[in-house]
Amino acid sequence: MSAAETEVGPGSGPGLRERKKQRTRDALVRAALTLFTSKGYEHTTVDEIAEAVEVSQRTFFRYFAGKEDAAFAVSRIAEAHFIQAVRERPSHEAPLEALRQAVLEGWHTINEAVESVVPAELQMRMYYVIESTPVLLAAHMRRSAETEEAVARLIAEREGVDVDGDLRPRVVVALFSGLMRLTERRWGAGSDMSLTAMRELTSTYLDAMGPALSGNWRAEGS
Q1: CB contact at 8 A, 97 and 207
Q2: If we measure between CA atoms, which residue out of 55, 69, 57 comes closest to residue 23?
Q3: Residues 32 and 71 sit within 8 Å (Cβ to Cβ)
Q4: Handedness of CA 203, 206, 210, 213 (dihedral sign)
Q5: What angle (nearest 5°) sits at the alpha carbon of residue 72, between those of residues 44 and 193?
């Protein structure tokens, strides 16, 4: 009996099917992002994405509701890992510190999850496409608001407060999210598009948050 025949034994079928489905889904994501970053989102069709993976349009729609769904597939992975990282932060950390450490200490884990689907460089280039495509930018802002709400509820749960009766969870998350969006924009406007550059810039902005909120900005004698 061959190794392949041995692998496809009783009880192993569903696992193999799931792995095959995951490979197909990942291939569709890579094809979609490659086409979006080379041709542009609006000039790429679902048929072209499916053809690049040698599957039917019907197969594409088994995995994604449409192009937009595929465009944000990797972002969803990163968001899910970030939320899990926040959930796992030590309970003694203040909310802003928990968010900060979830990003910085979870950086490699989050990016390993991303790179299991697409090269980091491809996902980095996709940021440009999102920022320069109105329909994607609008979707990104809508999705960011949904993620912020999920994180605010998680912070409220961590701190034992009512998210609808206490303003602080949503205020803290809005502040943190605004800083992260600023970091993305500054990184996108720079010349170094590496993942390392993005992490360093993220760390720099996060480190400046505390002094910006509580420090005295005025120069000596003014």
Answers
A1: no
A2: 55
A3: yes
A4: positive
A5: 85
Residue 194: strand, helix, or coil: coil
Structure tokens at 190: 């720079």
Q: Which of 74, 76, 82 is nearest to 36 (CA)?
A: 74
DSSP 106: T
Q: Which residues, 6+ apart, have CB-to-CB distance to 1 below 8 Å? A: none
Token reading at 109: 């884990």
Model confidence pLDDT, tens digit, residues 8-65: 444 445 688 888 999 999 999 999 999 999 999 999 999 999 999 999 999 999 999 9
Residue 187 CA: distances (Å) to CA of 2, 98, 196, 197, 210: 52, 23, 11, 8, 21
Q: What is the DSSP string of 46-69?
A: HHHHHHHHT--HHHHHHH-SSHHH
